[in-house]
Amino acid sequence: MRNDTIHLAGVYTKTVMKSWFQYSVDAVLRSLAVFIREAVGIVVIYFSMLKFDTLNGWNIHELMFLFSLLFLTYGILILFFTGMRDFWKTVRDGSFDRFILRPRGLLFQLIFSNADWFAAIGHGGLGIVLFVISAGKLGIIWNAGTVVYYILAVIGGVLIQGAMFVFVAALNIYLLQTDSLVTLFYWDLRKFAGYPISIFHRAIQFCMIYVVPFAFVNYFPSQFLLRKEDMAGYPAVYMYLTPVIGVCMYLAAYGFWRYSIRFYKSSGN
Amino acid sequence: MKKFAPYLAFAKKSFLGRSAYRFDHFMGIFDTILRIFIFWEIYRALYGGRSEVDGITLTMVTTNFILSMGLDAVFFVDDYYLPSRIQSGSIATELLLPVSIHGRMLANNMGNALFQLIFHFVPTVAVSVLVIGIAAPAEPLALLLFLLSALLGYGVLWTISFVAQMFSFWLINIWSIVTIKNSLIKVLSGSMIPIWFMPDWMQEVIHFTPFSSIYFMPVQIYLGQLSLSDILSSFLIQLFWIAVLFSFGMLLWKKGQKKLVVQGG
Amino acid sequence: MSLIEVNGVSKAFRVSRRSAGIPGMLANLIRPKYEKKQAVNDISFSIEEGEMVGFIGPNGAGKSTTIKMLSGILYPDSGSVRVNGYIPYKQRKSYVGSIGVVFGQKSQLQWDLPVIDSFELLKAIYRVPEDVYQKNLKRFTDMLDMSGFLNQPVRQLSLGQRMRADIVAALLHSPKIVFFDEPTIGVDVVGKETIRNFLCELNEKDGITMLFTTHDMQDIEKTCKRLIIIDQGAKVYDGLLAGIRSAYGTTRQLDVEFSDDCTVAPIEHVEMKELDAPGGRKKRFLFESKEVQIDALMSSLLAAYAIRDLTVSEPEIEGLIRKIYSGEVVR
User: Fold this and answer.
1) CATH top-level class of C4-245
2) Residue-range definition of the domain harbouring residue A205
3) Min CA distance, C158 vs chain B (Å)?
């Protein structure tokens, strides 16, 4: 990155922050709201576990660890990819036309004019809280190897999800209406992703591994560290693939985006 | 009847307007079915072959999810109806129109709700019943009372949103408040975890909130879990919440309007 | 080579067609219909450096689409566009630094922030050197009398103030060419005048090439020498503003006030209208300038009647253009 690019990223961030703080109550509440919205899912699982003890052999702390990877990667993800997730909005309100008129990378502008710090704190914060609660109670040996593995898994997980956003944004150029597609590809499948995929129907597992590979964001990395019995149903090599899949998917999605952008149609007058 | 004509027009407009987003609509249906499906899968795994837990059968659990998520799709509320108008400033001119803005809000939501009932609830429930199966209503009367209870449940949900929207007079942006509100509804109304499975203390707390009267009461009536007198008192509870919340909302509305006048819109 | 060259450019959009009523809604839900709308149809023109050109046409004529193709937002379906030596939609990053674009209907300022914050952001985006930025900022804000609201959030500005701020925002990086899409829309009369004077001065002193669309003919008459009119995606007129009259406005009008009531015998190729009662003192004579010499007509009238007053009028540009739109005047 050139020096002035970093400078611009800084100016963008300052501007975005300042805009948020024009409505300070909402801005501060925003992190809390995101935290609560996401934590609700965990509370529900906690209640269920009080009644049922385990879910296919996973106890509450193991489930929390599984979830923490999902939230942590998402917290990092939305610092960089909110603009891709909400690309359809940018197109609809005409801001994307404006980005085209400025002598900077389109992805760069989308990323830095949309970084959502408060939501990132909400998601990331929940991820950290869950990690802190659970990590010590699982018998994971934290040494250089596992720490490096963990970091690579987080990066891979961010890239996998980032690639999905970039892909959907590129698709938006053809379909114009993709908010539901984001709901489906992202939010809905993400609902499965919090749980051990082994409990789901084969078709769903197939989707989670080969179509929208959420399983590589948290399930397989968690398996590497936890080695639960249900891992026996999958090739052991899957536990090591997260970073590779992340990089490959991201490059493919980026290529698709570059190719698609030439078909962009401005939203009329 | 003439008095209601403009509201009917608003409702019709929002009903017809929905067809513009065709792809969205089919995705929305798929979304609901998927969510029902996920919970079915999770609870199948949790039950692990047991026929019942604490007297609750798996069929009752899935019926709870199908009905409450189906209703969730029908219960259309636009949480940003008022906030968006306050933010853009168009509220000032809309207040001058000879139709009540609350009436418009409700008409708009009802038009959407009707569309959702026909084109979302029906296909969603049909597919869920075919794939997963559902408990039959305890008796024909239960079905009727379920519908009545569901209508009142919508009233409760609507008035909660009504109150939340009023905060936009002071905060302008109320995304956070709306999000927190909706999270609370999700968990406390029983649409994410059946209230039966919550810890006892939690169930006690929920009884003192309006949330269980949105989806859980209708579902209980459908399953025949409530005696006739319990059903009657559940209607009273729903009406009580609608009255309390609506009055509170109107109180905030009056104060907010004053604030609007002072600021000059 | 001209600064802006547009050759045989066409662009079509696919628009969904919605039918009315409940059956229409159902049909739309199951199978939406689309139709092709030819927004721009084989348009060519060129603009030299330093020109100031008005680009007008009725709603939906394809003005905005053309501006979007010129600025690189849209790819033309066919034909070619070359501006300042670049192909806008292919060499985006190197091209856009040399242009500025103002969309009157869509602000590029940060809605919730003071104007100056948006300017600072643009400075970073366009890599404007500090001294150039300060110089431009000072000069433009003085010219447009903006110092009073530079620190006010955009959402609190009047439409006229916001528009001035948006125009400055498009100029901070010293562009060579500026496209304006409705730069005076919704602005009050005084504000419009300020904006027009500002644009003229910039065009004269800095030689910035400008192309703008507008609905306000006053904008055109007070700023542009040249005019391009498009209608239904095709170019209808391209030439000097004054040329409109010679091309379309060939009808001349002579109003005569006679000293006394009188009747005038019919004159060949001249249409006469009574402005008072028939046989009254005031009459209007209409004729085509190529068929009837005005001085010949006047002298023949003066020779035959006692005349108190004579007024010759040329048709107004605005009225003519309205006629061009409505198809009354044929090329």
Assistant:
1) alpha beta
2) 3-263
3) 13
